[in-house]
Amino acid sequence: MNLILTVAALVMGVMLLTGHGDILMKGGNAAERKKLYDDKKVQLVSGVTLLIFGILTGLDMVVKSYVYDIIYLAAVIVIFIIMVVVIRKKCKK
């Protein structure tokens, strides 16, 4: 399962970073989001975040330790919070 998550996160991260991730940015209240946020910046931040998640999940496959599992969970939560803050502060139009 970790391999599927790792590959999916890395592929989606690369898609977002190269500008081909429009399909991933749909849903929710897209019209409202487009009014408030710069799509290119949001794609960049989301792409970097997914690449980091992919790398962390890949490391989780290799490192078999409960300590790393706790670090992994804490890192995912912190990175997600940082992503939300950066999008809200730096990606506004």
Summarize this structure briefly.
The protein has 93 residues and is an all-alpha fold. 77% of the residues lie in helices and 0% in strands.
Salient structural properties:
mainly alpha, single chain, 0% strand
Can you describe what's shown?
The structure is a single chain. By secondary structure, this protein is an all-alpha fold. Helix content is 77%, strand content 0%. It contains four helices and no strands. Helix 1 runs antiparallel to helix 3 and helix 3 (39-62) packs antiparallel against helix 4 (66-90). The termini are far apart.
Topology:
Layout: H1 2-17, H2 30-36, H3 39-62, H4 66-90
Helix pairs in contact: 1-3, 3-4
Beta-strand content bin? under 5%
List segments where confidence is low: pLDDT < 50 over at least 5 consecutive residues.
Answer: none
Residue-averaged pLDDT, rounded? 90
Shape: globular
